[in-house]
Amino acid sequence: MAGARGHLTLDRTIASRPVADATDPSAGHVLTVVGVDADGVLDPAVAELVRDAEVLLGGRRHLALVPEVKGQRKVVWPSPLAENLDRLLAEVHGRRVVALASGDPTLSGVGTTLVRALGADAVRIVPAVSSVALARARMGWSAEESVVVTLVGRHEARLLRELAPGRRLLLLTSGSGTPAVVADLLGAAGHGDAPMTVLGELGGQDESRVTRPAREWLAVPAAEVPPLHVLAVEVPVAGPWRSAWTAGLPDDAFEHDGQLTRRDLRASALARLSPAPGQHLWDVGAGAGSVGIEWMRAHPTCRTTSVEAHPERAARISRNAARLGVPDLRVVEGRAPAALAGLTPPDAVFLGGGATRPGVLDACLDALREGGRLVVHGVTLETEALLADAYRTHGGELTRLAVETTAPVGTFTGWTPARTVTQWSLTR
Known about the structure:
- The protein is α/β, with parallel strands linked by helices.
- It folds into three domains: 5-129, Cobalt-precorrin-4 Transmethylase, domain 1 (3-Layer(aba) Sandwich); 133-234, Tetrapyrrole methylase, C-terminal domain (Methyltransferase, Cobalt-precorrin-4 Transmethylase, Domain 2), CATH 3.30.950; 251-427, 3-Layer(aba) Sandwich (Rossmann fold).
- It has helices at 8-15, 44-52, 60-65, 81-92, 110-118, 131-139, 178-188, 214-217, 263-273, 290-297, 311-323, 360-367, 381-394, and strands at 31-36, 55-58, 73-76, 97-102, 123-126, 147-150, 168-172, 195-200, 208-213, 229-234, 280-284, 303-308, 330-333, 348-351, 373-378, 397-401, 404-409, 412-417, 421-427.
- Strands 13-12-11-14-15-19-16 form a seven-stranded mixed sheet, with helices on both faces. Strands 3-2-4-1-5 form a five-stranded parallel sheet, with helices on both faces. Strands 6-7-10-8-9 form a five-stranded mixed sheet.
- Helix 11 (311-323) links the parallel strand 12 (303-308) and strand 13.
């Protein structure tokens, strides 16, 4: 989404640093990315930069906003961009290149893609006001009281992780059909009454705002939704909640066939696995996927690869992950240790079953980098002996976990013990 015309003075201040240098190879810049307002109006200094470009990159809508300049070549982003970007950048290398983007190019935008491809020193960013800033202004929501979730090119179920009492969500969307998809997800989660506001064409002449309960958006045709919009969702304070980001969701939050790391054991394992932003977990012998799912729920940038040999369980993991707001969890169907070959190295490994299978424990240990964490659970004497030997060899922490829960005993209540679990944990 684009910015607002009212902030052109700020853009002028940004551009007052010698913008011509942004496309000068001697300055180290390969190209400049310019944020464009919804109405296409550019600050004079930025407009001069755009006019002076030999090559102008952008989407069809952005390129159509810019008047024709003799000798200037306009190039529409190729599709798919990721597979064709290197070729395109090679074609325009050495020329004065400007790329057009909506609002803030680093907010789920092409600016971030170009920085990743070329490096921060090679890309100059000249932003306009972002769609998020405009949406907060229109809704009267502060930055501290709202969260931004991008659904651009992402699975919409990502928003489910953010559901919590009174939570305010700003959803960056990629099409007119998104409100109906979001409404369906909210309804399935028990929040069909949540107010949803479509903020269309923010900062443009055709800016619009429509608020309805989530369930009513199911009946709104996509043709009646502005293609360019931000979706604001205010989650009710009352409702069903599975929103905890600390370890230990209820067992019934997961679909399973009995192969599930139970709540108290899961919380203990995750405490030792220590999820951290951007880190990657291997969940080996994943069963229902509960440990890997809760790892990803700890922070939006946490990643999990779940390895599961049984096809039905592998499919179940994907369903659980989507329903609990982490649809990007990767499932590898296969048996360790062979299935571990070629996987992105982990920061932590959970081995919930199959530790006695030849080569599995060694493969998990070998995969750990310095600072990596390993947690292994076992319920059999054979696994316990293996873990005791690993503890003697490598150190770490060896723990036995016995959990008892209450259950009816006739007309009374008594304790029912679960199977005792031996837990070995290690930090490399």
